[in-house]
Design a protein that fits this description.
Layout lengths: L1 H21 L19 E3 L28 E8 L7 E8 L1 E2 L2 E5 L11 E6 L15 E2 L6 E11 L13 E7 L1
Antiparallel strand pairs: 1-2, 2-8, 3-7, 3-9, 4-5, 6-8
């Protein structure tokens, strides 16, 4: 009788293992490709590698409904000392998106924060630059300081905008080609 229980337990375990193995299906392959560079360009955005873009003080009457925008504020990321084999770069901005809209940064949640508005980024041609997405390529030269221009502007995300601090934070990543 003990032998019969052992055989049944072994058979049950084999069935459980077979069931878990069949749940693992081969659906595809992900290949990761890249290169480790000996040296990259030097990014020069200020002390502590932090840049502050002064968006100014914008009257809430500027926003006449969802989608209305403030005037853009230009900011520049300076890149220098590029090796000769690096000729272009793209820039990707990351941050907290406004309620799932990857085209707009959410404002920092602080006391009295403005509502109904976020910050939209754009490239040098003022084409909207979605978060988490590489910009178009910027040409780089090895012996000069390269200026990568971008724009930021407030955009109403609601028909009603309230006044208050309107700050946000984004990080950026350079990808050299």
């Amino acid at each position: 009788m003990n032998m019969k229980k052992t055989v049944m337990a072994s058979a049950a375990a084999a069935l459980l293992l077979t069931g878990s193995v069949s749940a693992m299906a081969y659906d595809g392959t992900v290949k990761f490709e890249g290169e480790v560079l000996d040296a990259a360009c030097t990014v020069d955005i200020g002390a502590g590698n932090t840049m502050t873009v002064n968006m100014g003080r914008v009257n809430k009457s500027t926003f006449t409904g969802a989608g209305s925008k403030s005037d853009p504020t230009k900011f520049t990321i300076k890149v220098k000392d590029c090796p000769s084999n690096i000729t272009t770069a793209t820039v990707k901005f990351d941050g907290d998106a406004y309620e799932g809209d990857n085209n707009v940064l959410q404002l920092t949640q602080e006391t009295g924060v403005a509502t109904g508005v976020g910050i939209q980024l754009a490239d040098s041609t003022q084409k909207v630059l979605p978060l988490y997405t590489a910009s178009s390529e910027y040409p780089l030269k090895e012996t000069v300081e390269n200026n990568l221009d971008f724009y930021a502007r407030y955009i109403a995300k609601s028909d009603t905008v309230t006044a208050g601090p309107a700050n946000s934070v984004a990080t950026f990543t350079m990808n050299y080609n």
